[in-house]
């Protein structure tokens, strides 16, 4: 009897143990399955996060690269004297805070138009590494500087204005004697000299020597000694080559408003609102010579005999032709003002297709 009871109790105990084991194993299996599912979900989440993070990083890098063209842009306006450069530069000064760029004046010691080679190297390094002043517009009376010669990876955007060579010379001649409306009380170097330009040419004085017109060519030619040799044919060709290949835009004084309009359409980061500002402000009348007499026909004929005038005029007309071509590609308002025609291109047949 007791043995039968013992066997029955043992079987009950064994069954209970087996049942508990099976329950424990089932629970463990369920937890393992849930763990696997959670792990898979976690891996999928991590994968999505990595993908999203990679996409975000790529977008940020892409955005940074898109902004870098604007944020790092450098404009160099190596302004030729007496070409309405002050009027133009003051528009930039008025717009710089609103449009978020910097304007810096390059003052070369002794009012020289060329810099020693070490100074050129320092200038190139400074403007390309001075990140706090980017984007920036640098202006000054200095000849073209070739950044490629110094191994610079960043290339500046060169712009300039040219003027009819005789008009520029006459303006400078009377400016030295009578000053201008920009600083009317400043006594100029030739103050008190009443000799007219006609009289100066007739007497063959130094101030009206045609060689004094040799300035726009060397400014666009650069720092090579040949650039500053009056009448050098190579200098003229180099100036024309630089105008065509190294300058974004070279306008002419007689079309200053159009020059500003083209820059506004092309470089809106710098010149957004420039045309309207120039039109409505008094900037177009800055640096106007106080007293100036137009030359007589005999004086003009004498000047036109000069090889220097002929060469400088060739560069000026070359600039006019190039500027006219640029204007033809622009749109115009009903008032005849130059404006951006909008996007005239598109991308198509893009491969591979995005998923």
From TrEMBL:
Coiled coil: none annotated. Belongs to the sulfotransferase 3 family. It is a single-pass type II membrane protein. This is Sulfotransferase family. It comes from the Eukaryota. The keyword Repeat does not apply. It is found in: Golgi apparatus membrane. The keyword Disulfide bond applies. It comes from Nesidiocoris tenuis. Its main location: Golgi. Keywords: Disulfide bond, Glycoprotein, Golgi apparatus, Membrane, Signal-anchor, Transferase, Transmembrane, Transmembrane helix.
């Amino acid at each position: 009897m007791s043995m039968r009871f013992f066997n029955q109790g043992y079987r009950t105990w064994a069954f209970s143990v087996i049942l508990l084991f099976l329950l424990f194993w089932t629970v463990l299996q369920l937890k393992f399955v849930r763990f696997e599912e959670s792990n898979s979900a976690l891996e999928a989440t991590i994968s999505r996060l990595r993908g999203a993070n990679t996409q975000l990083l790529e977008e940020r890098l892409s955005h940074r690269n898109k902004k870098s063209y604007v944020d790092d842009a450098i404009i160099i306006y190596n302004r030729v004297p007496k070409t309405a450069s002050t009027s133009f530069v003051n528009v930039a000064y008025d717009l710089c805070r609103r449009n978020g760029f910097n304007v810096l004046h390059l003052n070369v010691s002794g009012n020289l138009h060329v810099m020693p080679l070490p100074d050129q190297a320092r200038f190139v390094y400074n403007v390309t590494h001075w990140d706090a002043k980017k984007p920036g517009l640098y202006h000054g009376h200095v000849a073209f500087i070739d950044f490629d010669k110094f191994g610079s990876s960043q290339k500046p955007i060169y712009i300039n204005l040219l003027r009819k060579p005789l008009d520029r010379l006459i303006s400078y001649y009377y400016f030295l004697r009578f000053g201008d409306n920009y600083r009317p009380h400043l006594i100029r170097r030739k103050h008190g000299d009443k000799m007219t330009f006609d009289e100066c040419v007739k007497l063959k004085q130094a101030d009206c020597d045609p060689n004094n017109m040799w300035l726009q060519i060397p400014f666009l030619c650069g720092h090579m000694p040949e650039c500053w040799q009056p009448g050098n044919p190579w200098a003229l060709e180099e100036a024309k080559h630089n105008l065509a290949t190294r300058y974004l835009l070279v306008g002419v004084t007689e079309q200053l408003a159009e020059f500003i309009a083209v820059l506004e359409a092309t470089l809106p980061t710098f010149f957004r609102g420039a045309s309207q500002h120039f039109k409505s402000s008094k900037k177009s009348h800055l640096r106007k010579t106080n007293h100036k007499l137009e030359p007589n026909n005999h004086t003009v004929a004498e000047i036109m005999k000069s090889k220097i005038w002929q060469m400088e005029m060739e560069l000026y007309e070359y600039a006019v032709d190039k500027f006219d071509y640029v204007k033809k590609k622009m749109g115009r308002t009903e008032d005849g003002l130059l404006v951006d025609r909008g996007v005239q291109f598109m991308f198509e047949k893009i491969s591979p297709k995005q998923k």
